[in-house]
Design a protein that fits this description.
Layout: E1 2-8, H1 12-23, E2 28-32, E3 44-46, E4 59-63, E5 67-69, E6 73-75, E7 80-83, H2 85-91, E8 98-101, E9 104-108, E10 111-114, E11 119-126, E12 138-147, E13 158-161, E14 176-181, E15 186-196, H3 202-215, E16 226-232, H4 258-269, H5 277-295, H6 298-309, H7 313-320, H8 325-338, H9 341-351
């Protein structure tokens, strides 16, 4: 079975590149054990990350200035968009693709083998995601969808809120509240462990979320839709036909990968490399940043992030998006100068990989 492009995996990354390959007139075979599975996670992105070809109808809500709380409040001068997950999946149409409901068991140079014995040949793009593993730091979250009619009309969008009203002590592994509108009628409140090895369990996060919402006067009735999140934020390997989280597109500092995959799809379809020398250097620096975050004592995580959100908007953007090497270096250098002196040695040790992780 031959095709111009064979795509393994139909999550957002795989479906995006399949959709764009079909738009470019290429023949496409997609292989996934459950190709009709409906996506349920909440996806969001900075507005300037999303490609121009994306249907504007997939945006459920736009926030001009989301709020980050660390030690103090920061208003982020960068538009943030929450996506309608169902609309996003539907918009990435696969009309004309050969869809194979099967499990990939072997990927070689231009060939894919499946569990049923099918052999497909063509340019292979492996977008099957990352498996969990004990050595990989993970992001976990537990969230509930709340009717906005019961909320204070002034409830802000909270990109990250690290205030300690979730019942955890200052020396416990930290978590933050993520609160974003999903529609005109609903809002997601999600307690999130940004990165941990091991990460906080959904049970712990649920307890913290319920404590935090009670402290803020937000009552739950038990019928709310629940969202559980768990995925690795490290372990991706750029290049060699891998794409999406498996190909290194997950940002270690945020766990975001969907916008990066959407933006990169056309480059991959055109056969061009995403991983220039500059992009690989930025990827390496961000992995070092994750090591620094994991090495911080719990009570210092908010201090570190307070310094980050105090950076100028262009430096925040350079670190959070794209592959701007000079901008990333400048952002990291400025952040290092802004953190308290007592944290600098720990950060340097972690960034240089001297912690053994």
């Amino acid at each position: 079975m031959d095709a111009d492009v064979i795509i393994c995996g139909l999550g957002p990354a795989g479906r995006a590149v399949a959709h764009r390959a079909l738009t470019a007139g290429q023949s496409v075979t997609v292989i996934d054990p459950h190709p009709d599975r409906i996506w349920t996670p909440t996806y969001a992105a900075w507005a300037d990350e999303l490609p121009g070809w994306l249907d504007p109808g997939v945006v459920a809500a736009t926030v001009a200035e989301p709020v980050a709380w660390a030690v103090r409040e920061h208003r982020i001068a960068r538009a943030y968009q929450v996506l309608d997950t169902v609309a996003l999946q539907r918009s990435l149409t696969l009309d004309g693709a050969r869809i194979v409901a099967d499990r990939v068991v072997a990927v070689g140079d231009g060939v894919v083998g499946t569990a049923s014995g099918l052999r497909c040949t063509g340019r292979v793009i492996d977008a099957r995601g990352l498996a969990r593993a004990p050595e990989r730091a993970e992001q976990t979250a537990y969230g509930v969808v709340v009717d906005r009619a019961v909320l204070d009309p002034g409830q802000p969008t909270l990109f990250m809120d690290w205030r300690l009203d979730n019942g955890a002590g200052p020396d416990a592994p930290p978590s933050f509240l993520y609160a974003v509108p999903l529609s005109a009628d609903t809002m997601l409140f999600e307690e999130t462990c940004l990165a941990g090895r091991p990460a906080l369990t959904p049970e712990v996060l649920r307890t913290r979320l319920e404590h935090r919402l009670r402290a803020r006067g937000i009552a739950l009735n038990g019928s709310e839709t629940v969202e559980r999140v768990r995925f690795p934020v490290q372990g991706g390997k750029p290049g060699h036909g891998r794409f999406g989280s498996a190909g290194g597109l997950t940002h270690p500092a945020t766990g975001y990968s969907v916008a990066a995959a959407l933006a990169a799809a056309d480059t991959v379809v055109a056969g061009q490399t995403l991983w220039t020398a500059q992009a690989r250097a930025v990827y390496t620096l961000r992995r070092a940043g994750l090591r620094a975050l994991l090495a911080l004592p719990p009570r210092d995580v908010a201090v570190f992030l307070d310094a980050f959100f105090g950076l100028p908007a262009d430096r925040q953007r350079a670190y959070l998006s794209g592959h701007d090497l000079p901008g990333t270096v400048t952002a990291m250098r400025t952040l290092f100068a802004a953190v308290p002196p007592r944290l600098r040695r720990r950060v340097v040790t972690a960034v240089l990989g001297l912690t053994g992780r």
